Amino acid sequence: MTSETLKKAGPFKGQIIPPPDKSISHRAVFFSSLAYGKSEVRNYLKAGDIYSTINAFRMLGVNIEEAQGNLLITGEGLYGLKEPKDVIDCGNSGTTARLLCGVLAGCKFNSSLIGDESLSGRPMGRVIEPLKKMGANISAKNDNYFPLSITGGLLRAIKYKMPVASAQLKSAIILAGLFADGETVIEELIKSRDHTERMLQSYGAKMYVEKLKITVTGPINRLTPCDITVPCDISSAAFFVAGALMVEKSELLIKDVGLNPTRAGFIDVLKKMGADVEILDERMVSGEPTGNLLCKYTNNLKPITLAKEDIPSLIDEFPILCVLATRASGVTEIRGAGELRVKESDRIKAIVTELRKMGAKIEEYEDGVAIEGPVTLKGSNQLQSYGDHRIAMALSIAAISAEGESVINGTDAVGISYPEFYDELKRLTQ
What we know:
The protein has 2 domains: 3-17 and 231-428, Enolpyruvate transferase domain (UDP-n-acetylglucosamine1-carboxyvinyl-transferase, Chain), CATH 3.65.10; 22-216, Enolpyruvate transferase domain (UDP-n-acetylglucosamine1-carboxyvinyl-transferase, Chain), CATH 3.65.10. By secondary structure, the protein is α/β, with parallel strands linked by helices. It has 13 helices and 24 strands. The relative contact order is 0.14. The radius of gyration is 21 Å and the shape is globular.
């Protein structure tokens, strides 16, 4: 376990290109591996979670090569995957684990999935239940946790109402629907990330999306290969956006950021808080809205109130939003976020515990938090990441805007999504 010692830093200046989007990188590898023929994935995220997906499909017989910074993937088609010779290790990646369940449910062979300690404590029952209804044979520890075994085969279409807003669950059912006989219909409670719907149609899937209802027609003979350019990750950019807003005299340009409406809730919240953030050069990149963000220090941020319908587009930004709320003049309340207790860590408990160490006035609810500001945070030498990359990075931004010195333990977790985070942090604040 590594640690970082941080203290109050100078203003954020210059420009940065954040890492490629993690969610889109996962899906580009998934769909290219299931297509029949050669696809190229440009600007993919070179981080732990994505390599879990790459290694999984290599074990399933897909030829994936890295060349000149891009991925060259030669898919053998939906029905060309091969039975793995060993268990597939999903590492820390919930996306790898849950989406892979949807694929393997339609494959006529046996496979087993494992993960690290964190992933092994995250619930899988919500994915297992609909896939069993479709005809897959799946067993898991207590019917809910890794390790997990799947015997796939002929699937039947189902109509399914989502119990929670989860892009991973939705995507698993969509992928299984490609193999199923008939129309699989998924109804969402609240719109979750729609990267799967956008991208999979580019590969030739028979899908129809109408508001909160998705219809997938199967079985499909084959998916058509595509070349995909992955935009940069707004969830990774969010830490530097917040840093620029919090540190006096900052002015930072963040380039090539994905602005998908189902992911850009953070930008909408910032506007409500009165933050000085401007969107420039909006354009489409491989079906995803993309643009640049110009961020400047903002005094007297306004408090905001967020409810359950706001949370799906803020899942990964919750920790840094809590840090930012310590600078708002009044009480910021975030509710309906109970799903955050089963991410890489219990993000609600984690951020409350750690920000209290820094002097934040923060109250914990079962489904969220209330934060009173403005508060000048104070350094702490006992901060913990809980093995969660988003918590580690959020605390790092808190530390460089706080009085005194902080020590954050478990910072190696940032390698999951942003291996260069600390190098960039130092470069931009020198």
